[in-house]
Amino acid sequence: MIGIISAMQEEMQTLIENLQESTTIIKGMRKYYKGKLFNTEVVLVFSRWGKVASATTVTQLINDYTIDEIIFTGVAGAVSSDLNIGDIVIGKNLYQHDMDASPLYQKFEVPLLGKTYFETSTLHRDNLYKATQVFINSYPKKIDAKIAQSFGIKHPKVILSDIASADQFISENHIANKLTHELPTISCVEMEGAAVAQVCFEYNIPFSILRIISDKANDNAHIDFPKFAKEIASHYALEILKEYFNKLSLH
User: Which of 215, 231, 239, 243 does the annotation list as catalytic?
Assistant: First the structure.
């Protein structure tokens, strides 16, 4: 069974609408939707924003269901100049950029674990990357052109890159620049991924993450996030996961 998490209801609304044989339970103020998505058993849940909320959600998910892997999907802000709105990042290494227990530990190192980042599952992220490439190649058939145009999306691309998480919404150039100076391999920032990655590491559950760029994490980071999440991000997730699950069934 695959656990799928998003921070916002809108980010997975299309997934919920396509879920079959679904049942719902509520725990810890979260709705867990169990059912089948493209003939694959899944549990869907939106965690709410932030590291604590997402870590709590994934821990409940792992303990209540027999989970084979976790996938996080949602939006993120770009800190790489090579990324544009509508591009997709498949996460490689996840950093908690607000973790600083110095001088006891080096900056970004999670105390007692001896890790400055959490790596996603190589196999799962590679398959997710390949599924995303298939989606990109058929993009005009999958995403409404007028909706994409309204957000300025023309020719989206996918990259495999590092991601940084923190309980901060980055919307100022000097903060984004400081982050990329300290963590030069990151391409985008968000508020949940590294926390979920840490829990999956501690529970030994394969983890992968896809992030759709909704804005540049700078002084111009203004967008209707719920609208983008519902009309773009959730549809991206549906089509990418369809291809991903197809690859799983072939194996």
Answer: 215
